[in-house]
Amino acid sequence: MTVPLRLKLDLVEPGEPIRYLWFPQSGMLSVVNDMRDGKTTIEVGVIGRDGVAGLALFHGHKTQPLRIMVQVAGEAKRLPAEAFETVIEQAPSLRSVLHTYTLAVFNQAGQQTACNRLHSLEQRCAKWLLTTHDHMDSEELPLTQELLAIMLGVRRPGVTVAAQALQDAGLISYRRGRISITDRLGLEKIACECYGRIRDDYESLFSDSAPRAGAGSRWKVAQPV
Known about the structure:
- It is a single chain.
- The chain contains seven helices and ten strands.
- By secondary structure, the chain is of the alpha+beta class.
- It has a domain at 2-92: Jelly Rolls (Sandwich), CATH 2.60.120.
- A hairpin with a 6-residue loop joins strand 4 and strand 5 (41-47).
- Helix 3 packs across helix 6 (184-190) and helix 4 crosses helix 5 (156-168).
- The protein is globular, with a radius of gyration of 17 Å.
């Protein structure tokens, strides 16, 4: 069944039983790591229309250590956990797709770890905006600086400076919690290499169903459902 995804809704919580698999139809989800200090949260992955939340069930686990929350509101198809095995048996091709998707998630997490350690806030901010843009149907992104700060694991003043630099360069425009990308190719030049590597790796893994896109194009691949 299709259900709404409300902004900041937690779909999967650390250590709690996974009740559903979620296949986003619109919007975007964030996989985040909440640190033990209770104050620090950082994004380690994203899930859009090309992915699924609750993947641990596919590997025989009923819980997972990371939280999955709604980053951009939208809709998702929701599959009860108890029905998952039946669906897998009835659609063997789904098993193959989920194996490939698991590798893509693993690669994304590895690249994200390097990105958080090595690249500047401005580069990471550009990468994050491009990734969000890839998963949206609109040129306008419903994002606040507060959410950006949480996803990038930094304080809000740092995001304000980075966003202002991108706006001064004519790459984005920002007002009232909405960001518009005005020069995508320019933003790609500012973004760190991680954006292109994650995108190209994903498209390579799913090349049978989605030809590789060129620079400046939207990253849209078939959803594994």
